[in-house]
Amino acid sequence: MSIQEIKKDAETRMKKSIESLKGELTRLRTGRASAGLLDHVMIDYYNAPTPLAQVASVSVADARSLVVTPWEKNLIPKIDKAIRDAGLGLNPVASSDNIRVPLPALSEERRKEMVKVVRQEGEGARVAIRNIRRDSISQVKDLHKQKLISEDEERQAEEAFQKLTDRFVDEVDAVVEAKEADLMEV
Q1: How much of the chain is helix, strand and coil, in % rounded to 5?
Q2: How far is CA 167 from the centre of its chain?
Q3: Were both Cys, which of 65, 90, 111, 157 would link to 140 (CB 3.0–4.6 Å)?
Q4: Per-residue pLDDT tens digits for 97-145
């Protein structure tokens, strides 16, 4: 494996860490409705846990509510129960052909708790990125031990991995700051 391949692999893995962070943060409820809020809700569909998105369409009705329209009407009670049990603090209202999910306004205290969670998620992403850097540098050191690269190439590669890490950590910080601002917006 060459230094370029190691660097390309590290960059790909760091991008996945950022995407994972963004995915986790979309599950956190801000003051606005987002269809992604219900992404991790699982429905008992013919005795198999199935993601809500596979049995219904989720759309944003307005800034404070979602509408879930199941493809099979007999799923309405199951979807209603799954949303209630998802731990999101939501109380869906079922009708004959869809489920309306009003989003209550967040209290100041709840917003601050959510900011703490956002920061924890951000720190988790930073740690993952640093671990990728450590693994990459370790691979480069192995190449040096096997006498496949020179000491100078090893040092340059380490500097390149540090710059890459700094770039992605800055991106994590930007994502976290944007989510915090979104949460604190009333």
Answers
A1: 60, 15, 25
A2: 19
A3: 157
A4: 899 998 877 778 878 888 888 899 999 999 999 999 999 999 999 999 9
